[in-house]
Amino acid sequence: MTIKKTMLESISRFKSSKGDLLRAQGMTMAVWAACLCPLLFLLNASLRPLALLCPLMLIFIALPMRQSTAEAMQLFLAGAPMATVAMLPLNGYWKKVARSLRMTGLMLLWLLPFAVMLGLLLYALTGMDFLTALGYLSSLGGGDFGQGIIRYVIVMMLMLLFPLFGVMFHSGTRHACALNDRKLVKGHRGQLIRLWLSGLMFVLPVAICVVALIAVIGVSAVQFTTEWFNNLMAVPSMSALMPPKWLLAVTAASAVLMLVTNPMRSLLPAIFLRGVKDEKEQEDAAA
Question: pTM value?
């Protein structure tokens, strides 16, 4: 099963069943939004403990639903409609919860380098006053405060590549479980990673806009902090941190477009691993 063939089949499937796929995505987004809503309790000091509902809802609702969605995709690829009811984790619920927790644990391991770097920074800054901390960042840049911030941000961004790689590495696991054969991913991790990267084509506009936003905000933050460091008596305007309105508008438009194209990206690992399984069964039958 080649990457090109997988992408073409994904486009074809979307064209023939776009209504079902868009409804399924809408349901997924609604569930995740509902699970994240408890974070709003953080805005009220007396209600902040209720924010703990967020991780609980993610563990017991959203993550098991991801497993069921993978199963629904396989039913869809087998010829059944992409039914939203099939996305509900009704069958084997606790098994799906356990599997989701296992995957979450694996992703936390991929996040470990970033957490270590952040922890080292917090440890280094413990007990430092504000001016000493600024001097520390300045020395990191060879005497240039702005360069110090840039270098530190670059290091932290590099650390985030580890969890990103983890997402790509495990992108096919739930689909292999949906096919009742976790061994399908073995020997195909490289192809799944390339497939994940190729799938960015379906969300390319919003990906470019997000990168541009991060870059613009990052540069603005460096300039803001540098100006503040050079003149501690005058705090620069916070409006300097805001990205251009046109970039925000383009990002919003790209996000809307992504809602339409994202189902094609989501189908890629499901189609690929189903093809791998079919090829494996054909080889076994021929033998």
Answer: 0.83
